[in-house]
């Protein structure tokens, strides 16, 4: 299981890590004392179980849970709080917390994480059994499984780009799902018919999507500055946004005045469709 630990006390992080690593199956993939850093990290790396304290900055643990939920980031969550009152308990469980404990006891966290890990393994095994059963029983169901893998992979890509919490995210997902389902490129779609919207609604939707894509360009440019030789980032730059747009944003972030490129919806959505094919060839 992949764990992430967030606590403003480094000594407590160390105690939790040591407790978790008693099992060779557990891997701590990240640690932070900062709620915003945790949110940014979980947008980019896969985490099975988040162990987080309520008392954080620049916002508290409950707000972190809400931000993760809004961004469709759903690890299993163990939260600790010194004096959890009823409103906090209710809000925490409502926003995805699996266990809320009062005292930060590493041994207790280890046993709780073991329970959650067992549940996750059982669910994973059940999914594998269901997929095998479905594939044997019905070719149509096998097609549905492939479709789900494609759309899930695109959703993971959008989360990696840091745009899952943006207003245009849902529209991007809807359009991509139609493209995957029909195996059509962006210019072959009839969105007014497929989404049952009029021309004005489509125009407003495109504006939201363009603003969301621009956020993706900004985030990807920042990652390219930090990791200039990362091939996956370069692939995303070329296939989704056009590298010239990423390059212009990199120049802008470095303080160089340069005219930014034009966002192409067709280039972006056709790139997402091509990205979805990766899982069908893996």
From TrEMBL:
<dbReference type="Pfam" id="PF00072">
    <property type="entry name" value="Response_reg"/>
</dbReference>
<protein>
    <submittedName>
        <fullName>Two-component system, response regulator YcbB</fullName>
    </submittedName>
</protein>
<dbReference type="InterPro" id="IPR013972">
    <property type="entry name" value="YcbB"/>
</dbReference>
<dbReference type="InterPro" id="IPR001789">
    <property type="entry name" value="Sig_transdc_resp-reg_receiver"/>
</dbReference>
<feature type="modified residue" description="4-aspartylphosphate">
    <location>
        <position position="53"/>
    </location>
</feature>
<feature type="domain" description="Response regulatory">
    <location>
        <begin position="2"/>
        <end position="117"/>
    </location>
</feature>
<dbReference type="InterPro" id="IPR011006">
    <property type="entry name" value="CheY-like_superfamily"/>
</dbReference>
<keyword id="KW-0597">Phosphoprotein</keyword>
<dbReference type="Pfam" id="PF08664">
    <property type="entry name" value="YcbB"/>
</dbReference>
């Amino acid at each position: 299981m992949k764990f992430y630990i967030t606590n403003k006390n480094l000594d407590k992080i160390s105690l939790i890590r040591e407790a978790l690593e008693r099992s060779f199956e557990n891997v701590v993939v990240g640690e932070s004392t900062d709620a915003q850093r945790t949110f940014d990290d979980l947008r980019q790396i896969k985490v099975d179980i988040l162990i987080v304290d309520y008392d954080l900055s620049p916002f508290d643990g409950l707000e972190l849970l809400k931000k993760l939920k809004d961004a469709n980031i759903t690890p299993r969550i163990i939260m600790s709080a010194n004096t959890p009152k009823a409103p906090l308990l209710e809000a925490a469980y409502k926003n995805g917390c699996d266990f809320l404990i009062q005292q930060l006891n590493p041994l207790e966290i280890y046993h709780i994480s073991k329970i959650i890990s067992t549940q996750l393994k059982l669910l994973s095994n059940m999914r594998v059994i269901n997929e095998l059963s479905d594939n044997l029983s019905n070719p149509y169901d096998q097609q549905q499984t492939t479709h789900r893998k494609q759309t899930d992979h695109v959703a993971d890509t959008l989360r990696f780009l840091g745009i899952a919490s943006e207003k245009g995210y849902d529209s991007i997902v809807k359009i991509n799902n139609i493209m995957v389902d029909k195996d059509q490129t962006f210019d072959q779609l009839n969105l007014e018919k497929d989404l049952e919207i009029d021309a004005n609604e489509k125009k407003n939707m495109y504006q939201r999507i363009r603003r969301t894509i621009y956020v993706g360009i900004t985030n990807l440019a920042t990652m390219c500055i930090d990791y200039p030789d990362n091939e996956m980032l370069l692939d995303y730059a070329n296939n989704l946004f056009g590298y010239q747009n990423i390059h212009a944003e990199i120049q802008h972030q470095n303080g160089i005045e340069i005219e930014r490129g034009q966002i192409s919806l067709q280039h972006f959505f056709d790139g997402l469709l091509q990205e979805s094919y990766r899982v069908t060839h893996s």
